[in-house]
Design brief:
- This protein has helices at about 10-35, 45-70, 85-115, 135-170, 175-180; strands spanning about 120, 125.
- By secondary structure, the protein is mainly α.
- It has a single domain (about 10-180), classed as Fumarate Reductase Cytochrome B subunit (Up-down Bundle), CATH 1.20.950.
- Strands 1-2 form a two-stranded antiparallel ribbon.
- The chain starts with 11 loop residues before the first helix and ends with a helix.
- The structure holds protoporphyrin IX containing FE.
- Protoporphyrin IX containing FE (HEM) binds near residues 32, 56 and 60.
Length: about 180
């Protein structure tokens, strides 16, 4: 239960989606940073790229699911206390995160399929390779590369805001996301 009266806890689905996404994003960054350093044309490199692509598509699907859940679920309520600017900043930050978390899979997929690779998502389904386009793949790869910095910055602000809620404002926001 929440420590602030009138605020419901996050449901188990919302919490699973949130922490599942958090783990996936960390994994995507770790795999991405490592795969770039592997020797060109090695099996290990192509396996790591394939893993990154499959995890990334999976993350994109989870983000869509979470967006649907946020809009359908009455659980998703932010604390009503605190200044108005803070509520606005939280809203902007969350929508910024969703926009980035959707654009990373999108640019990753476009960069791959127009750059000569099909995408196999853990043997469940695949996204076929399209006729090569250096222009499209080039722009998509550049946006994917730049997106990582924007995502890191927003995730940093997000974590900081959660800690401020928990330890300065003491409104139980982080507890609700952990225990409901
Ligand atoms: C939330 C989802 C994703 C995150 C957070 C993410 C993150 C990253 C990061 C941090 C890099 C390293 C960028 C660099 O330093 O150049 C990268 C590279 C890459 N990602 Fe993703 N990615 C995601 C989804 C995807 C998806 C869905 C695909 C393809 C299906 C994909 C394909 C690639 C490829 C091919 C590279 C290498 C690009 C290059 O070397 O030009 N990513 N990704």
């Amino acid at each position: 239960m929440s420590e602030v009266e009138g605020i419901k806890g996050y449901g188990v689905t919302a919490r699973l989606l949130h922490w599942g996404m958090a783990i996936l994003i960390v994994a995507l960054f770790l795999v991405a940073w490592n795969m770039e350093d592997l020797p060109k044309d090695s099996d290990e490199r192509s396996d790591m790229f394939a893993l990154h692509r499959a995890l990334g598509v999976f993350a994109g699907l989870l983000i869509l699911l979470r967006l649907l859940w946020v809009n359908l679920s009455v659980d998703y309520l932010l604390p009503s206390q605190g200044p108005k600017w803070q509520a606005l900043a939280a809203k902007l930050g969350h929508w910024g995160l969703y926009a980035l978390l959707l654009s990373m899979p999108l640019t990753g997929i476009l960069g791959s399929i127009y750059g000569g690779h099909s995408i196999d998502v853990f043997g469940l389904f695949s996204i076929p390779r399209q006729p090569d386009s250096d222009l499209l793949a080039g722009y998509a790869d550049k946006l994917h590369e730049l997106g990582q910095y924007a995502l890191m910055a927003l995730v940093g602000v997000h974590v900081l805001a959660a800690l401020l809620h928990q330890f300065v404002q003491k409104d139980g926001t982080l507890t609700r996301m952990m225990k409901g």
